[in-house]
Amino acid sequence: MATFYVENFGCRATQADGAALERQFRDRGMARALHVSEADIVVLNTCTVTASADRDARAAIRRVHRQNPQCRIVVTGCYAQRAPEEISALPGVTEVVGNSHKHELVSIAVPVQSAGTKSDEAGQRPTSEDQRPIFVSDIFAHTQLLAAPVFDAANQRTRPILKVQDGCDNRCSFCIIPQVRGSSRSLPLPQILREVNTLVAAGYREVVISGINLGRWGRDLARPSRFENLVRAILDHTSLEKLRISSVEPMDWSDEFIALMAQSPRIAKHAHVPMQSASDRVLRLMHRKYRPWHYREKLEKIRAAMPAAAIGADVMVGFPGETDNDFQQTLRMVEELPFTYLHVFTYSARPGTPAAVMKNQVPAPIASERNRVLRELADAKKQAFLQSFVDKQISAITLNESDAEHTECLTDNYLKLWLRGKHEANRWVSARVLQSSSGALTGSIEQTA
Predict the structure, then answer these.
(1) Which tens digit of pLDDT belongs to each residue from 290-323?
(2) Chain segment 354-381, per-residue pLDDT in tens
(3) Burial label, 215 (beta-carbon count in 10 A; 0-12, 13-18, 19+)
(4) C-alpha dist (Å) from residue 402 to 124, 233, 438
């Protein structure tokens, strides 16, 4: 039996694409290899959000070619869409399949023999002797959305992730994503409900929904809808015990959505609201669609509605032209707002974006220092949040039977909890928190579900 191996890089959306490809390979009668060295076809599903992501992809291509020189290496994903010629020139690469043709990747890699040709070569570019076939076309003409649940390798029995939206209609000046993923596209509601009900029938008790710009779900459908309608439909038409919502932009936290999340015990109390900067000037340079006062208002509403919720954000430092005063504004807002964690990023220039050619690029040492300062503040705020739960009861789902002494869990409000004793995975527990240390809680079981 022919074998395949899919290796994903980057965000949850990329992981979801990879899961859909695996499903398609299996539908062709192929088996998943346990390691790249055992695979007939290796798919590298790349990211390109930073320069380091590109480097990681090139290193992976070299590694796979070294470990399995006889296999076919098919490179896809965002880096493949952005720089296909660069990738095709690398030794070992068999085909480059951009996001525009990712839905055809399995047909390209494993063509139906009776058809005599690959299923769709309209986007194939002429190649030289030193290049392999490239399948890339206008991403903004792309309408397909690959979707299949993603299962964390470490937590196969809990918390699958389902991508329900792809692409982005925003044009942030630093971001390459619209150019490699195209316009916003939504998975139709009936298909989402089928996927969720299938996961529930299989025994999963928590599902995470995600997307590139998740809050824009439904705007592009034949009968336009809004994100809160999707959330309500999942609650009304499935028996899912817990729905967790990934990142949603500030503009999409409507009062109705906040109230729905706060009132339903079936929605995890976890809000991730990208901020990027608290400087009005920098936000305008970034082409972000909100102002600092607007962002502050949204977070204060979320905290008022859900006093114990986890609240996180993406924050960028070192954006071109960011001054010390701009950074201090961000630092002050992070200090003042009820964040429980942050994802802090240092700006990385992406070719083809407006920010890449802006003047006053921030020197790397300055950006690195700002990153360090923000991370230290975020760590302190997270530790204070953890400490506030000591000697309290908290709900969590068991993830792994780690060892005889502890079981890893994730709380409803996105905290790591080490539960004393060995417990079966995929069970809701009510635990008494005993202590907080090293970025996690330790507790003892009081009740299981």
Answers:
(1) 999 999 999 999 999 999 999 999 999 999 999 9
(2) 999 999 999 999 999 999 999 999 999 9
(3) buried
(4) 48, 35, 17
Contact status, residue 68 vs residue 40, Cβ threshold 8 Å: no
Note the pTM of the prediction, 2 decimals.
Answer: 0.87
Backbone angles phi, psi at 242, to 5 degrees: -145, 125
Q: What's the fold here for domain 161-387?
A: pyruvate-formate lyase- activating enzyme (3.80.30)
Tokens of 38: 């055992």
User: What kind of fold does domain 3-138 have according to CATH?
Assistant: Rossmann fold (3.40.50)
| CB crowding 219-251: b at 16 or more within 10 Å, else e | bbeeeebbbbbbbebbeeebebebbbbbbbbbb
CB 240 within 8 A of CB 209: no
> For residue range 317-340, what is the model confidence (pLDDT) as tens digits?
999 999 999 999 999 999 999 999
Q: CATH: 3.30.565.10, 3.30.70.260, 2.60.120.380, 2.40.50.140. Which one for 393-448?
A: 2.40.50.140
